[in-house]
Specification:
The protein is 0% helix and 49% strand. It contains no helices and 13 strands.
Amino acid sequence: LTSAGAGAPPVFETPASAVNTPSFLAYKTSAQSIADTTAVQVTFDTELYDSDGKFASNRFTPTVAGKYFIYAQLNMQATDGKYFETRIHKNGSLISYTQTHMGTVTYNAGSYIGEVIDSDDNDYFEIFTYHNSGASKNLAGDNRNSYFGAYKIIE
């Protein structure tokens, strides 16, 4: 914030060194079958963008320490009275999840998660899902209904 003088509105400036990279957004273009009561890694086959080439093989490895906003949305075939989860894994371990309780079987249920997470220069992040529907279910893979993204927060 810089003063422009008496009576003038202040000027908001971003330091030249402040960037929100690395960043990426990847999504699914085809359905993925998810086994019942099994944590399964979600595959993302198309990148909308990847600023620094840090997303590969369904994994985001920022290689730059800092705070990141990591987010994902998944859509799954609904089963009345059951639930499914969207999970963030860091270095192979579950660190956060959101649980969506499904309604009737006539639609897909959506589950979104977004969180600020500290990362070292060697951490990596993946998205997993889990459900208790009683049989395998498909994650949606059309119209960018299921996606995974992240960006570095300017500090």
